[in-house]
Amino acid sequence: MAASRIVILGADGFLARGFMQLLDAERRPYRPIGVAEVDLTQTASVAKLRVIFEPGDAVVFLAALTPEHGRDRAAFFKNIRMADHFAAALEATPVAHVVSISSDAVHYAADDFYALAHLVREQIMHTACAAAKVPLTIFRPGAVYGPGDTHNAYGPNRFVREARAERKIALFGEGEELRDHVFIRDLVRLFLLVIDRGVTGTLPGVTGDAMTFRDLAVAIDRTLGGSIAIESKPRAVPVVHRHADPAPLFAALPDFQPTPLDAALAEMIAAPLDTPRPVPKAKPLPPLDGEVDVTLMVPCLNEAANIAPTLDHIASAMRELPYSYEILVIDDGSTDGTSAVVEEYAEAHPDLPLRLHRHAANRGLTRTYVDGAFLARGRYYRQVCGDNVEQKDVLIASLAPLGKADMIIPYRLKTPGKSPFREWLSRLYTHLINLLSGYNLRYYNGQATHIRYNVMRWGPYSFGFGFQAELITRLLDEGATYIEVPVGGTHTNKAGKNSALNLRNFLSVTHTLMETLIRRIRRQTFKK
């Protein structure tokens, strides 16, 4: 019986893209899950997967660090954690079928961390699926190739690029190693076949037609018309032949016919020429679709020294929370290179859902806050100032109750590092807002989390730090629900003039107090 849905873990990778193309062509329902939504190396991924999984799902587990990301101990443990967290989710929410990707490296390099990781992952999958009574298929493919692969590994992908761009192919030694190269269209077709037919077991992902790298280079030269120079360069490692017995695969799927090599190469050569591993910049603003749970809007004005640790804290906090999210950085007219730091950060963290928007001139905190709501995609919306004053634990505590009320309003029981005068001012401000509004909140100037739509429809008249109190009291007037959340943390005094204590903000706070009183009078007089 066909699965009601196919869930793809590791949806950012080359194999997943090829599989999704097949599913689109077959009009099959599927649910892709990439690292931005669920980071399987983090413990929080277990809770997220338990919410996503459904009993009729077939789950295709493609999440793994490939060899170019490291064969060291750190990469080994990350690969193990991915499988372990998946197994923990499976215990609570069994599915209809699991297909897991391994590697033929397990046969040839048992002392290699990459191969050992796949051996351990296989055992984790076997144990978890047996306990949950879930059918399991494991594929051990050889070297996978095809159009759209941005890996530049030695083999078909690199050879085709070199041949098309430089009219030559460089071999190590004489290229005498044997390999069974697998076309991506064939491998993803195998995924679908085993799901539809209920085939289980550990299968080689191979064609049965192993060839040397030199024979492969000659085939590429032939496909391109015979004008490619095939060169040799000194060999850095010993010759190792790798080719698995295809008999178990063809016994399980006797009608499976791999794509002929010449046809596969012709498709690669006809595709647009790829560049190896492009590193994405901060993403341009997309249309307002594909809603996520929460947008974290980071306003910045000359925060080049602080924005990177701010983003570190956000990313670290969100890995421990079961929500989809995006980070929207708005550079409000900085002149110190803040945007360049954000772009460099995005290059170094390509899997982080990070976007950058620039204001040509400074618009102020309130205008930036509201502009961000229109640019965002989250159902909920929270500001995280770019000056790195909010720690990870504060973010986790203030976002954990997401979805339980229209507003999540944080307050501090005490603030180490804050002067007695500033503490007195904060208490006075809160007391005045409560007195004038008729409400009884503990704090109004924290970074509250709102339903984004409520921010979008609010017309602010404040231009300083008083805008949160104005927005909160206005929503309370309309009957909005709220939760107050105690948070920890310390107060950090930034170098230079204190921006909170100036005439502009004094006038803004005064305006907020007057507006609050006027709205209360109107509410009591006109009952609206």
Characterise the protein shown here.
- With 528 residues, the protein is α/β, with parallel strands linked by helices.
- Helix 10 crosses helix 13 (392-399) and helix 14 packs parallel to helix 17.
- Helix content is 40%, strand content 17%.
- It is elongated, with a radius of gyration of 28 Å.
- The protein folds into 3 domains: 1-141, Rossmann fold (3-Layer(aba) Sandwich); 149-181 and 209-273, Alpha-Beta Complex (UDP-galactose 4-epimerase, domain 1); 294-526, Spore Coat Polysaccharide Biosynthesis Protein SpsA, Chain A, CATH 3.90.550.
- It starts with a strand and ends with a helix.
- The protein has 17 helices and 19 strands.
Protein traits:
528 residues, alpha/beta, Rossmann fold, UDP-galactose 4-epimerase, domain 1, Spore Coat Polysaccharide Biosynthesis Protein SpsA, Chain A, 7-stranded mixed β-sheet, elongated
The assigned structural class equals alpha/beta
- How are the strands of the largest sheet arranged? 15-14-13-16-18-17-19
Give the C-level CATH assignment of the largest domain.
Alpha Beta
* Mean of all residue-level pLDDT scores: 83
CATH hierarchy: architecture of the largest domain? Alpha-Beta Complex
Number of strands: 19
Global shape:
elongated
Please identify the oligomeric state: single chain
What composes the largest sheet?
Answer: 7 strands, mixed
- Determine Rg (CA atoms, Å): 28 Å
Share of residues in strands: 15-25%
Low-confidence stretches: 275-289, 490-498
CATH superfamily placement of the largest domain: Spore Coat Polysaccharide Biosynthesis Protein SpsA, Chain A
CATH topology descriptor of the largest domain: Spore Coat Polysaccharide Biosynthesis Protein SpsA, Chain A
